[in-house]
Every structure is written in C-alpha cells, then in structure tokens.
Specification:
The protein is mainly alpha-helical. It contains two helices and no strands.
C-alpha cells in the first residue's frame, strides 16, 4: 500500500464512523417513536363522540 501523505483515507474513515455513530441512535429513536404512535389508540373523531354515543 502506498503511504498516504494527506491522510485522506483516515479522514474519510473517521467521517464515516462519525455519521454511522449519529445514524444508529437516530434510527433507534425514530423506530421507538413510530412504535409508540402505532400502538396508541386513535382519538375519537369528535370531542363529544362519547356523549353522542350515549344518547343513541
């Protein structure tokens, strides 16, 4: 292997590691938020939906 005087290879590797380190927590957080939203029950269509259902 040829000696890299500018150390561009090492710099690229560090940049890739940095972005990978940022991407992993972002993906985990996004997945956790999506799972919470998916599991939450849908709110009623109207604020008085329970009252309207009781009247019928």
């Amino acid at each position: 292997m040829v000696y890299d005087q500018d150390k561009k290879r090492m710099r690229r590797r560090h940049v890739l590691r940095f972005f990978a380190a940022l991407a992993l927590p972002a993906l985990l957080l996004g997945s956790a938020i999506a799972a919470v939203e998916w599991a939450a029950p849908d709110p009623p269509a109207r604020a008085d939906a329970q009252k309207a259902a009781d009247r019928q």
